[in-house]
Amino acid sequence: MEAMVLKEVSPIETEPLERMDLPVPVPGPGEVLVKVSACGVCHTELDEIEGRLKPRLPVILGHEIVGRIEGLGSAARMFHRGDRVGIAWIHSACGKCKFCKEGNENLCPEFQGTGCDANGGYAQYTLAKEEFVYSIPDRFSDAEAAPLLCAGAIGYRNLRLSGIQRGQVLGLFGFGASAHIVIQVANYWGCEVFVFTRSERHRSLAMKLGATWAGGPEDEPPKRLHGAIDFTPVGETVPKALSLLEKGGRLVLAVIRKKNPIPPLDYSEHLWDEKEVKSVANITRKDAQDFLSLAAEIPIVPEVEEFRLDEANRVLMLLKQGKIQGAGVLRVPG
Ligand SMILES: [Zn+2]
Ligand SMILES: [Zn+2]
Predict the structure, then answer these.
(1) pLDDT for the residue 203
(2) Strand spans (E) along the chain
(3) Residue 169 phi/psi, 5° resolution?
(4) Residue 45 above 90 pLDDT?
(5) Distance 218 CA to ligand 1 centre (A)
(6) Distance between Cα 99 and ligand 2 center (Å)
(7) How far is the CA of 150 from the centre of ligand 1 (A)?
(8) Nearest bound ligand to CA 158?
(9) Cα 79 to averaged position of ligand 1 atoms, centre (Å)
(10) Residue 277, pLDDT above cutoff 90
(11) Helix (H, G, I), strand (E, B) or coil at 37
(12) How far is residue 295's CA from residue 148's CA, in Å, rounded to a whole number?
């Protein structure tokens, strides 16, 4: 099978993903073999490639996978050959620790990430444990469904954890794959959304998708924010967002790693009046399942830019430069 493989950590500018021909993997007990048709490109992959996260190496990246069941390992009974399925960032969790038992499997000490601790979807085939595979609602094409699995599902977790309520004002910092889905959920929930991004194109997409205000990171919005989600990879956004929060408001940090340090916070300006900061780690299966149903109900309209699998290096470069409109998706040859 054709696969794009990361062998060593390196800046994306060096095009570190290597196109390789590998044997099709064989599903073990309880696993399914999925023939991949589309795989979304996520900012977390840049963190893996450039060493801010530590993937096992070599690894096939990719954790927004849509495809069809092609093979079943022994004792795999939940799906049939030909079923259309999705695979998300959560590859597995132990199921036994206190976090798993409390429904917080995203915090499991043995949490494994798809395309990080196990091979992912930048390939024609991949394996998954059947309990960590989801049916995809019919209304989405393969390419549209791909970004729902991370950008959408993690975005949904961010939005829930922001505590935002109907009628309140939500601030989104950065407007990429995840934010363009989150805004559609927030509108559906009756929130007003303000978007902060440097990119002119991203601001116009935000207005098209229902933002009531869009400006640059230095601009002053017309109202204070009851909740905010920071999708940017930079540290400077954190004090900026905190200074714009309403009393008692919460800022959620959506990225796994910031690429530069968060500047020192001033207690009275950034934290006083019961303001909160919360990070979001991984997702649970329930996040993915709940979000896929909600996405079909709303319905979410994902904006996708499609590329060939062997263009993965270039797509990640465009992502780093903030030049993807909506979500980037790799089409995998049949
Ligand atoms: Zn992701
Ligand atoms: Zn666990």
Answers:
(1) 97
(2) 2-6, 17-21, 31-41, 59-60, 65-72, 84-87, 90-92, 112-113, 125-129, 133-135, 169-173, 192-196, 213-215, 225-230, 245-253, 276-279, 304-308, 327-331
(3) -100, 125
(4) yes
(5) 27
(6) 6
(7) 5
(8) 1
(9) 24
(10) yes
(11) strand
(12) 8
Q: What is the pLDDT of residues 305-326, one digit of tens each?
A: 999 999 999 999 999 999 999 9
Give pLDDT tens digits for 50-109: 999 999 999 999 999 999 999 999 999 999 999 999 999 999 999 999 999 999 999 999
Would you give the DSSP letter of residue 53?
S
Plot region of 178 (φ>0 → left; ψ -120 to 50 → alpha; else → beta): alpha
Query: What digits encode the pLDDT tens for the residues 156-208?
Result: 999 999 999 999 999 999 999 999 999 999 999 999 999 999 999 999 999 99
CA of 259 to the centre of ligand 2 (A): 28
Model pLDDT, residue 259: 87
Above 90 in pLDDT, residue 216? yes
85 C-alpha to ligand 2 centroid (Å): 24
Could you say which ligand is closest to the alpha carbon of residue 283? 1
Measured in Å, residue 42 CA sits from the centre of ligand 1 at 5
Query: Predicted confidence band at 143 (pLDDT cuts at 50, 70, 90)?
Result: very high
Instruction: Give the ligand with the smallest distance to the CA of 111.
Output: 2
Nearest to 148 by CA among 170, 181, 110: 181
Distance 108 CA to ligand 1 centre (A): 18
Mean pLDDT computed over every residue of the chain: 97
Task: List residues, by chain if needed, whose CB lies under 5 Å from ion ligand 1.
Answer: 42, 44, 150
**CB proximity list for 122: less than 8 A, separation 6 or greater:** 3, 4, 5, 17, 39, 60, 61, 62, 115, 309, 312, 330
Ligand nearest to the CA of 64: 1
**Which ligand is closest to the CA of 254, given by its number?**
1
CA of 151 to the centre of ligand 1 (A): 6
